[in-house]
Amino acid sequence: MPMPLQPIKPKNISDQVFDQIRESIFRGQLKAGEQILPERELSQALGVSRTTVRNAINKLVVLGLLEHKQGQGTFVRSPDTRQGNPLAAAMEVQDATINDLLEVRMGLECNAAALAAVRAVKEDLAFMDASLEEMRAEVSSGRLGTEADTAFHMALAYATKNSVHVYLMKNFYDFLFVGIKKNLSHLYENPRNIDEILRQHGTIIAAIKRRDPKEATEAMRRHIQFVQDFFRNRL
């Protein structure tokens, strides 16, 4: 039986707008609670029609990444306010724990650190540095720095240049964000823990800049192990 083939269509312009806005959210350039530009300004900046922008925004709203507020505009939605948050569902229905999440991150992110040490480009390193500086500023202002922390780990994912890994981390984003927020809220009980997290992030970045995959892997392993040990010791 012949295969039911259809002509390949070029990627829809609206999908390209969707991808660009979504990536800005994942990279922490657009933050939870932040208002995005109005349709008219976005269409002008991107050089596309308002209908194209509207279609992309509506898809992001359906996914829960954006939300419309009547009379105010469109805002980035925090992952922990979305209905049906996957981490919350896993924790409640499947009896998943923070350690379950950290075990998954251990496998994904240690490998990501090794790949990033080999493949990261100047832009990737700039995103990592920016997320670290932003987290320092957030912490010094008495906030958790969840968005900046998450942006660091997403920057690491993009630096792998592995499309499957990036895809997995995009779909893992809610787990990552909410898990990091829970981690930081408990770690904040002792400010020295947050200082240590910042130091660990710096060590990971330094290893990646030195193009040392083994040390980058070990630095990430120590980072996640630190959090695992903290929660084990609280029990």
How would you characterize the overall build of this protein?
The chain is mostly helical. It folds into two domains: 65 residues, Winged helix-like DNA-binding domain superfamily/Winged helix DNA-binding domain (Arc Repressor Mutant, subunit A), CATH 1.10.10.10; 149 residues, GntR ligand-binding domain-like (Four Helix Bundle (Hemerythrin (Met), subunit A)). The chain is built from eleven helices and two strands, in the order H-H-H-E-E-H-H-H-H-H-H-H-H. Helix 2 crosses helix 3. The longest helix is centred in the middle third of the chain and has 22 residues. It is globular and about 50 Å long. It starts with 12 loop residues before the first helix and ends with a helix. The model has no long low-confidence stretch (mean pLDDT 84).
Features:
2 strands; 11 helices; 235 residues; Arc Repressor Mutant, subunit A
Summarize the structure.
The protein has helices at residues 13-26, 39-46, 50-63, 86-93, 98-119, 122-140, 146-159, 163-171, 173-187, 191-209, 213-234, and strands at residues 66-69, 73-76. The chain is mainly alpha-helical and 235 residues long.
In CATH terms, what is the fold-level topology of the largest domain?
Four Helix Bundle (Hemerythrin (Met), subunit A)
Portion of residues in beta strands equals under 5%
| CATH homologous superfamily label of the largest domain | GntR ligand-binding domain-like
Instruction: Write out the strand line-up for the largest beta sheet, numbering strands in chain order.
Output: 1-2
CATH architecture annotation name of the largest domain = Up-down Bundle
As for the number of domains, it is 2
Q: Give the terminus-to-terminus CA distance.
A: 61 Å
Q: Secondary-structure element order, as H and E?
A: HHHEEHHHHHHHH
Radius of gyration: 19 Å
CATH class of the largest domain: Mainly Alpha
The helix fraction, in percent, is 55-70%
